[in-house]
Specification:
This protein has about 270 residues and is α/β, with parallel strands linked by helices. It contains eleven helices and seven strands. It has one domain: Vaccinia Virus protein VP39 (Rossmann fold, 3-Layer(aba) Sandwich). The two termini are about 35 Å apart.
Amino acid sequence: MKQNEENLKELVKEKYGMIANQEKEQNLTSCCGCGTSCDTTYTIMADDYSDLEGYNPDADLGLGCGLPTEYAQMKEGDTIIDLGSGAGNDCFVARAVVGEKGRVIGVDFTEKMLERARENAQKLGYNNVEFVQGDIENMPLDAEIADVVVSNCVLNLVPNKENVLKETYRVLKKGGHFSISDIVLRGNLPEGLQKEAEMYAGCVSGAIQKDEYLALIEKAGFTNIKVQKQKKIFLPDSILEQYISKEQIQEFRDSKIGILSVTVYAEKI
């Protein structure tokens, strides 16, 4: 089991290392940037950040599935940790809220993403935004340093979500909270979608049931758990047909099975 988890992590690291060199437009024509292009441009997962203060187009690779920073209830002077910070998009939006007195820490394990994020921070002249290389299952950060933790479409990529939530609890101050956007499921996906490795790196096959996801958050010790936003994700036939048959696609469309983007809030007391 442990070996399988490590293999999946390496797959994600490899895929997102490739994505770091792509532009947003290329990622938006694929399933969460996994590299499988559609014949039509679809913003399959991502929400539009462009109206948020602090938004920087160079840091937006179109890989998110929500707007956690919009719902995170951050304030000036806060310390923010972004799990799976990518090119820095959510970090820079957070910095616009916390200001010069605050601190923003992005954690990512993909070297090329970190390079791109650091270049972006340097261009913007931010000295209170830093990017740390590390596994979010075992963060190289002290305990109880964050007022708020955010993350955007990352936990679903991690095999052991329980460990990530434990680490999130550890780095949050007492009275702190998180706002995390992620992909969850309603019902069981067709077998072809679940097993295909590239779909795992593309945000879908690593997702778990919504109820199970919320239960893991509660198990980690969090309270006042709320779903702040929920939307159904539509996968076009041009993606689905690469993994399942036309008959299975129709069955999938006719069923109540759903791929959902949720933004979840929870507190550490």
